[in-house]
Fold this protein.
Amino acid sequence: MPKVIRIKKGLDIKLKGKPEKIIIQADLSEFYAVKPPDFPGLSPLPKLSVKIGSEVKTGSPLFYDKNKPDILFTSPVSGKVVAVNRGERRRILEVVIKPDNKNEAVTFQKGDPKTMNREEIVNNLLKSGVWPFIRQRPFHVIADPDDDPRAIFISGFDSAPLAPDLDFILNGEAASFQTGINVLSQLTSGKIHISVNAVFATADVFSKTEGVELHKFRGPHPAGNVGVQINHIDPVKKGEQVWTVNAQDVIVIGKLFEKGVFNPTRLVALTGSEVINPRYYRTRLGASVKPLLKDNVKEGNNRYISGNVLTGSKITNAGFIGFYDSQVTVIPEGDFYEFLGWALPGLKKFSGSRTFFSFLLPGKRYTLHTNLQGGRRAFVLTGQYEKVLPMDIYPMQLLKAILVEDIDLMENLGIYEVAEEDFALCEYVCTSKTEVQSILRSGFELMQKELG
Amino acid sequence: MKSLRKFVDKIKPHFSKGGKFAMLHSTFEAFESFLFVPNEVTTKGSHIRDALDMKRTMIIVVAAAVPALLFGMWNTGYQHNLSIGMEATIWENFVFGFLKVLPIIVVSYVVGLGIEFAVAQIRGHEVNEGFLVSGFLIPLVVPVDVPLWMVATATAFAVIIGKEVFGGTGMNILNPALTARAFLFFAYPAWMSGDTVWIQGLKNGEGIIDGFSGATPLANAAAGLFDNLPSTWEMFLGNIPGSVGETSVIAILIGAVILVATGIGSWKIMFSMVAGGLAMGLIFNAFAVNPYMEIPAWQHLIMGGFAFGAVFMATDPVTAAQTEYGKWIYGFLTGLLAVLIRVINPAYPEGVMLAILLMNVFAPLIDHYVIEANIKKRRRRVRVES
């Protein structure tokens, strides 16, 4: 048995709207989309391989970054490209496809990854559009196929607020998961690490998988973040890469080699206080959330999020599920004034500190909204970030190094080891309401530019 | 509250850019956000945010200091009536003190916030809540008889030179409230030390009953008059002469409990400062060559401003060490220095203020070495690999 790594720092934000373990087959969405902003580090103006009106099959290329033309982004569904939505400075936000119900798919190479060489495998992953599921540290961007990563890390549980239960999602997919692991093991000369939650019995899909090293973690969020796990197992060092893959995406990789098609089917948890029946839905990558939300959301001004409340992206009630997301969250918007809000006893308010009397109610679940809850200020309080970041990193000092664009200092303070999601709780607790995650991303971008 | 909100919304355009009172924009914003938490929602990053904001933070520190203030008000009246030999009820003492201390609070807030509002407007920032605490602490660390114009001058100095020239709250190097006190101490020493300043009326030569001394424990100790020291219980309770809020260790401890329980004040700094003070006291005990060095180490903790400094001044997050290891070192050295200055240097009977200000200056250096250790560890990992 691996020894349990105990995470002491962190914070579990207890929200209302935990998903019930029931799987619903979602209706076909009217539209599907792939969203370039889901891929940090990608050029904001990727080259389109299709035009409006082009017919595509599942697995047909939609666009690519001209600096890395090998990495293709492909269609999750067969149909017709109906729109390319653009934002500021013509940056591409969404490539929208209307399905044609024919379910045609491009066929890729099928076979046992153990008998294939690395080049064949990489090619198959690149062509099918599955490669982008593999991301690297540093900088939490799509991995470079030419690198030989020191190791590959997979988190076997998600500890974020209302996160889906990965044991439940992967249930019955053990064979594909094993194939996916076999594929990944051909990509690295190092080990493949999987971390599971020590609180529960390890699911078969993890314990019976061969060719991996199992680790057990226990503790509050962000214990389930792969970055935190890497930091405790074997931190990223300067000049090396480690790769990470989401557990559910390992199955997509496995199915590509088992069936020879890009299979974008996935289970998505619909969660949040404003959902009437929070449950799991079987749907597709990039699907519009409309059929999931139909007759299932409370009235009012709501925030729709693809992902969890800490790191997810804002979408509309007809928006699309993000490339890496297995969760959709609906919470109320907080666009109202609150009379003397900062002075109230605060039994309905949740805080990581004990400054509101709600700390006397430890088991309570909350309906939290999107109000910023105060004005933006300079850094004043100290030690707050450290309480929710279980990594050997000085968060505030790293953020300040990024703000003054001191490359050496950023490197020295461990920018290679972190990702936005690891700092999401710092952003949540920040009294000064600092935009921690976007500062971190700007640091990554600066580093990538400097390092070339 | 709807009608109030409507009223605020109605007058808001006048204070916005291009409005009649655009020059009061920051002031308006400050009052509006005081009344109503703004309706601003998250746009990027985490969609939900902690309910704790700067206003809540500052108001908790103020709440923690309230027991010390209330006790100080009562003590002001009590000491005054004691000095003139009058009997008075608790209530009469309190009202007397309230009327003497309130003007200091008002002056401190009006001057300090006035400057803060003006600077915020010039810079185009929102008004920062930091002064809510500083303005509350200044009256607590001055003698009750200090002339109000001096309070005004010192507050202005502390806010402008101590804080705003560095960029405002969050950027300052020295604790603003202590800067104000240090300014008074060096600019007007006659009003900040001696036997007559601590009790209302004494300075003006109001009738004193025979044999009454208004000296603080520290002044007595510095003068070698150890027989005149109040009892331990009196020093702990605080019915002794001293600055308005510093005398009662009990009231300060209530504040400490509030700060530590809410997590706003760093228990590490408080704890290590006490440890530092005790350590220096014990060192003195071991090498004692005069009576001051012989007093029990723990007695330093209840004399003068040690407790107040440890709980309210040294813990200021902006000017203290910012790393968690650094806080241990910073607190310990502050406590050590406070007792050292107190006992060794006859020119400054109170060492706590100077010790904290000195350590404020050294805090970035402490942090530097703590961070450097982290950097070295990271570099070593790379070297082992290659």
Q: What stands out?
A: Chain A is about 25% helix and 20% strand. The mean pLDDT of chain A is 92. Residues 12 and 165 of chain A are 15 Å apart (CA to CA).
